[in-house]
Amino acid sequence: MAVVISGKELAKSKKIRMAEEVKGFEQAYGRLPHLAVILVGEDPGSVSYVKGKEKACEEVGFINTTIRKPDTISEEELLNIIDSLNKDNLVDGILVQLPLPKHIHSEKVIQAIRKDKDVDGFHFANVASLYLKQPGIVSCTPKGILEILDSISYPIEGKHAVVIGRSNIVGMPVSKLLLDRNATVTICHSRTKDLASITRQADILVAAVGRANFVTADMVKDGAVVIDVGVNRNLETNKLCGDVKFAEVEPKASYITKVPGGVGPMTICCLMENTIECYLKHVKE
Ligand code: GUN
């Protein structure tokens, strides 16, 4: 039987601590942290993420602006919005919710965000900082995963971490963070041969595939720590589910996260932390 790590509870206590810190900001620096979120279209997943971000901003005491635009918005108009947010000295963080409609060049939009307002950690400069071990904004989901491992005081050094998925948002940066903590890291992907023989070697298994119930019990070593990053919709039940077949993997694992209530709340919590980091840089400049 595994211990189910509640990202929701962990995020809740971290947000309470952040709210305490934020309370003193107005007096110390004359204003509160301000996060601006841009939501294009009405993708249900994105709408729900953005609602979660708005709620978290309220909980920790930030100013939040959500700019909602139809999916017919042009790339130029979107870039103009980012330009004015970049120039606004009262905005600390800018987040463009992904995915964007196909006619918009996502990378161009993301890279238009000023690097010191890039709370997602997606700007080239922040990505480079991560790979060169320099100070910078670390993207939220990978940072949240490391915080989950630290919450159980898991000794990462020397352990074999297997990451399934090589995305820029999760797979690649979480692999680098684990490597920096002296784990031995294997990155698996859709072309990996005999995936199960590799995942079975994992002390830490991070599933970031985006496929419901992809990780089954036969792919997991006894006593592994299993981190489920997936956010999928189960087509039979219409419920949110992860990449891990929880019911059969949980008895084999020592620790496991659940979907929902696992990595997701920690991603939002780290977004709040990144916004504070940007804010403190701005007010101390
Ligand atoms: N869509 C899914 N995950 C993310 C994320 O971490 N950041 C942004 N901006 N969009 C997302």
Task: Please tell me about this protein's structure.
Helix content is 42%, strand content 16%. With 285 residues, the protein is of the alpha/beta class. It has 2 domains: 27-135, 3-Layer(aba) Sandwich (Rossmann fold), CATH 3.40.50.10860; 140-263, Rossmann fold, CATH 3.40.50. Helix 7 (140-151) packs across helix 11 (263-284). The structure holds guanine. Guanine is lined by residues 95-98, 120, 140-141, 169.
Task: Outline the fold blueprint.
Blueprint: E1 3-5, H1 7-23, H2 25-29, E2 34-40, H3 44-60, E3 63-69, H4 75-87, E4 93-96, H5 106-112, H6 124-131, H7 140-151, E5 160-164, H8 171-180, E6 184-188, H9 195-199, E7 204-207, E8 225-228, E9 232-233, E10 240-241, H10 246-249, E11 255-257, H11 263-284
Parallel strand pairs: 1-11, 2-3, 2-4, 5-6, 5-7, 7-8, 8-11
Antiparallel strand pairs: 9-10
Helix pairs in contact: 1-11, 3-11, 7-8, 7-11
Bound molecules: guanine.
